[in-house]
Predict the structure.
Amino acid sequence: MSFKKYSLAAAVALVISAGSAMAADVPSDTGTVTFHGLVSSNTCKISVDNKIDQNGNDFDVNLDTVFVKDFANALGASSTLGEKNFTLNLTECDPATVTSASAQFDSWGGSSSTSEGMLVPPANLQDAAANVNLVLSNNGNSNTDQVKVDQTNNTQIATVTNGIGNLFYRVAYTQGQGWDTTNNPVTAGTVQAQVAFTVIYN
């Protein structure tokens, strides 16, 4: 299936033509009229878990607290440790141009990713946990596979009906790429990572 990003462009032309020429001895007044307008590139309104009071398209998802002992065994991409479900809600979509949507996730704000598509928190955050990554997965629309961050692989597509659609995901903890239960274990601390998402409309 092909994907397209929609953009909106508009051109406005204003032509004012004078009527018959004014007689030379009749005074005239001149002035200007300024027109104000806005063309928005937003195709749908986006929220997470229907939290409509959030500003813009920046959202927070809070995972459950877990313990160092929970990382004793390798978790990998199928991890469910501390997982949190979340939904990208699409509303007020233009039914004339949007019938389905998907999303691409890329590391952001100092975060990075592994070759396997795990999300790696910034290493320089104060009091950060060591050797902890996050794994993002699809969780709906008949898709439960891993979403590999910084890779174009997301197969979940939401049908947009009457201007409304939903994209379902989950995020969980897993070990970092250098983890070793004996020589390089997980240490306690905070875990904070960011992704940027791009919603692609069909």
Q: What stands out?
A: The two ends are 10 Å apart (CA to CA).
